Amino acid sequence: MRQDLLATRERLRDGATNATAEMDASIAIAQAPASRHVFMRTDVDAARAAASRSSPWMPLAGLAISVKDLFDVSGEVTAAGSAVLAHAPPAVADSPAVARLKSAGGVVLGRTHMTEFAFSGVGTNPHYGTPANPADPATPRIPGGSSSGAAVSVANGAAFIGLGSDTGGSIRVPAALCGIVGFKSTAQLVPREGALPLSSTLDTVCAMTRSVRDAILAHEILARRIVTRSHAPLSGYRLAVARTTMLDGLDATVAHAFDRAVATLRDAGAQVTDIELGEIRNLGAIQSTGGFTAAESYAWHRHLLEKHSAGYDPRVLARIVRGANMKAYEYIELIHARSGWIASIDKALRGFDAVLSPTIPMVAPPIAQVAPGAERDDEFFRVNTLLLRNTSVVNMLDGCAISIPCHVPPELPCGLMIWQSAMRDDTVLNIALRAESALASITEPT
Predict the structure, then answer these.
(1) Within a domain: residue 317?
(2) Residue 445's pLDDT band (cuts 50, 70, 90)
(3) From edge to edge, which strands make up the β-sheet containing 161-165?
(4) Considering 35, 66, 120, 146, which one is annotated as catalytic?
(5) 143: burial class by Cβ within 10 Å (0-12, 13-18, 19+)?
(6) CA gap 144, 141 in Å, rounded
(7) CA–CA distances in Å: residue 366 to residues 74, 156, 177, 361
(8) Which InterPro entries match (predicted)?
(9) What is the per-residue pLDDT across 178-223, written as a single tens digit (0 to 9) for each?
(10) What is the pLDDT of residue 277?
(11) Which residues contact 391 (CB under 8 A, 6 or more apart)?
(12) What's 381's domain CATH number?
């Protein structure tokens, strides 16, 4: 794996490399056979030109970033991984997220593949193909979704930042499966304009990176705020391990990696307490009528569906149309139920700085196991439900969370999720910095 952005920026400033050479390296990776289906499109000439004009003293120093096909980039079509929007008019302006990354010196290498309309944590796409997870060159495995190409572009070294979105886990799931860092900020901190919506209530604009310090930099640029740094050691933090639901049905690799990570943090001084957090069990009943994603996605898609429903991924279509059956009073009741549920979780977490959970309960299955096809639908939906189970709790909480790698090669990647309620972003990021350092001490599987 290439160095992270901050290390590469230091080499640029020291004269050990230059932005054009780094962009050429990114382009070579993006054009390699292993990157098939990672990018919807690239503009290598424009990327090289922008890199050549960059300054190493800018925050992103002319280095390559990738943009999920969900975001407006001036002059480009925002298709959201769909066939039905492939010939839509091009965007007339950059989305705020893209504009902020560009103004900080980031160079857009290309638009990345994604699950159609961001509606899945698996990462498959029947229209444009599915990028293979770079963690296992021998067996094509799912990258996770919906920010599939964004995750692979960072994991394989093509991009230093992968701009994406997270509605139920679409940043953290692929980050965990591909062995990189994914930070979901509190939703209100980054503008969502210029990003095609899935759920106006739950959508979050955020990014994937190769390190926690890069995640902090990306967040500061996207949110236009400075993260308050703390020098407190891990012993200064009180962490909870949520046992209800979050630890159910873990596969052997994830269970072992998570237990090892928690033990390592304890050994490093963290105060770790197991709690039940039984309130998580209530989420099923709260969302029994389909939840925000079904209702709000149907509201956006209903007119498009009148003419183009046959062009949708059937697996995506089935979940969108479920929203047509939600009644107004059920939607209002959902809003109130969520508010009460958030209050109960906040009360249960009082006194804790953050919660530790496995990001995902399983390592990446082979693409063939869940590839498009009606005969694999049951397995696809089973895997999708499992992948989003833990991460979606944080979206319903309106909280913030980061996934950091907790595997040790040759183990397949999995993630440690550190999370809390809204506006606790800085605490989560500071804990993640300490946790990342502690986990680096694990040099081989135990």
Answers:
(1) no
(2) confident
(3) 39-42, 107-112, 64-68, 161-165, 205-209, 181-184, 400-405, 415-420, 354-358, 238-242, 271-275
(4) 146
(5) buried
(6) 9
(7) 36, 18, 12, 15
(8) Amidase (IPR000120), Amidase_CS (IPR020556), Amidase_dom (IPR023631), AS_sf (IPR036928)
(9) 999 999 999 999 999 999 999 999 999 999 999 999 999 999 999 9
(10) 97
(11) 121, 166, 168, 169, 172, 173, 184, 359, 360, 401, 403, 417
(12) 3.90.1300.10
Is 235 designated active site?
Answer: no
Torsion of CA 303, 305, 308, 313, to 10 degrees: 140
Q: Considering the domain boundaries, does residue 267 fall inside one?
A: no
What SS3 state is found at 164?
Answer: strand
- Are residues 163 and 66 in contact, defined by beta-carbon separation less than 8 angstroms? yes
Closest to 337 measured CA to CA, from 288, 389, 379, 381: 288
Instruction: Pick the catalytic residue from 26, 35, 66, 68.
Output: 68
170, 185, 297, 357: the catalytic one is 170
| Within a domain: 291 | no
- pLDDT tens for 60-83 read 999 999 999 999 999 999 999 999
Whole-model pTM: value is 0.98
Q: Is 211 a catalytic residue?
A: no
The two tokens of residue 433 are: 């910095």
Q: Indicate the DSSP class of residue 366.
A: B
326: helix, coil or strand?
A: coil
Is residue 67 in a domain?
yes
Residue owning tokens 């090669």: 409
- Give, rounded to a whole angstrom, the gap between the first and last alpha carbons of the chain: 23
Number of Cβ within 10 Å of residue 421's Cβ equals 18
- Say whether pLDDT at 441 is over 90: yes
Instruction: Collapse the DSSP code of 263 into the 3-class scheme (helix H, G, I; strand E, B; otherwise coil) and give the result.
Output: helix
Q: How confident is the model at residue 444 (pLDDT cuts 50, 70, 90)?
A: confident
- The parent domain of residue 389 ranges over 5-234+365-439
Count the domains in the chain: 1
Question: Radius of gyration over alpha carbons of the chain, in Å?
Answer: 20
